[in-house]
Amino acid sequence: MSSPAASPLLPVFARSELAFERGEGCWLVTTDGDRYLDFAAGVAVNALGHSHPHLVAALTEQAQKLWHVSNLYRIPEGERLAQRLVDASFADVVFFCNSGAEALEASIKLARKHFHANGQPERYRLITFEGAFHGRTLATIAAGGQAKYLEGFGPKVEGFDQVPFGDLAAVEAAIGPETAGVLIEPLQGEGGVRLVPPAFMRSLRELCDRHGLLLVVDEVQSGVGRTGHLFAHEISGVTPDVMAVAKGIGGGFPLGACLATRDAADGMTAGVHGSTFGGNPLAMAVGNAVLDVVLEPGFLDHARRMGLLLKQRLAGVVDAHRSIVTEVRGEGLLTGLRCAIPNGDVAAAFRAEGLLTVGAGDNVVRLLPPLIVTEAEIGEAIAKIERALDRIKRDMGLALARGAAE
Ligand SMILES: *Cc1c(COP(=O)(O)O)cnc(C)c1O
């Protein structure tokens, strides 16, 4: 492999040296034949693991018929997927795109256009939360509000008012004559696996109703079974008006969607928004195949059960290794370990034991196994985690001893 300095890739990612050749379920195999237990799942994307036979069959079958026609024509597989998403959620209508950021862009535009279409064009601002992550386009970095993603990219897109996580009084104070709604991840992923308390979600809904605002949820990471519920907002019993979905819904095929009530979407008429690739037959075939599995009776129960087991086992790990990991967070299979030493060091130690995880904000390591993970695989992951933490402790002890000897 060429050295990073000579790479033709734009160096925007800090990549590990690992390169994988194939995957089977929760396992990834490198080009050298080493096997890794994948608790990163492509950052919560491979909901059904790798090479799931039903997804492989759906994609290959569609690939032999038709790949792309554009949205100039009807796409029956897309109409079917939209209807199934509508039947399974609060929504009445669906817009398909190719990524999470695009699903957010569509959600933001839809919210603004709703007020424009209803005689209140001045209402275009969305209230967002500290620690949020909504994508990397110009509008979504403005919505996320993180300085490290905004810096150097010119004026921030107007129209986002950020308040502290979980601060209801601050939300209320931020509501003004230009406010269109509230945009929130029911469970912050990149921000450090922080669940929004269900009572807070319900208060947001009440505030939105009282002020005639739209509640927009970003379920790009938390949706499609990740929390053991089809969508994370269901945990609070709150019904949003608009929802962005991506990651897990394509099982690894690029697919995003914006779901909305007919009322919220009333400004979105022919020509006001679009996408060339969005809803293409390959993506629709895979999306339908993902839903075939996720909506099967018992599937979400399994994810919920495995999530509970993982959390219990991780709580035991925290008890035994408090000097390195201090807290278990999350819901279902969107879990995190808060670290007392740099989270990158912990993830690297896990990787050295053959376990893949992902970093997150607030010094957290995320564990995001495929939703098909088994009890035995969770046991293997815990064994690897124990070994990694023991090694870190040993190395820290050695370093201390060396320091004392000097
Ligand atoms: C990953 C993510 C996005 C952005 O998705 P992309 O597909 O990378 O554009 C947006 N919101 C949340 C909550 C995410 O986790």
TrEMBL record:
Keyword tags: Amino-acid biosynthesis, Aminotransferase, Arginine biosynthesis, Cytoplasm, Pyridoxal phosphate, Transferase
Cofactor(s) listed: pyridoxal 5'-phosphate
Coiled coil regions, renumbered to chain: none
Keyword presence, Phosphoprotein: no
EC numbers: 2.6.1.11
Subcellular localization: Cytoplasm
GO molecular function: identical protein binding; N2-acetyl-L-ornithine:2-oxoglutarate 5-aminotransferase activity; pyridoxal phosphate binding
Pathway: Amino-acid biosynthesis; L-arginine biosynthesis; N(2)-acetyl-L-ornithine from L-glutamate: step 4/4
Binding site for pyridoxal 5'-phosphate: G100, A101, F133, D218, E219, V220, Q221, T276
Top-level lineage group: Bacteria
GO terms, biological process: L-arginine biosynthetic process
GO cellular component terms, A-Z: cytoplasm
N6-(pyridoxal phosphate)lysine PTM sites in chain numbering: K247
Xref: SUPFAM superfamilies: PLP-dependent transferases
PANTHER family found in the cross-reference section: AMINOTRANSFERASE CLASS III, SUCCINYLORNITHINE TRANSAMINASE
Complexes and interactors: Homodimer.
Family statement: Belongs to the class-III pyridoxal-phosphate-dependent aminotransferase family. ArgD subfamily.
Name recorded for this polypeptide: Acetylornithine aminotransferase
Organism (species): Methylopila turkensis
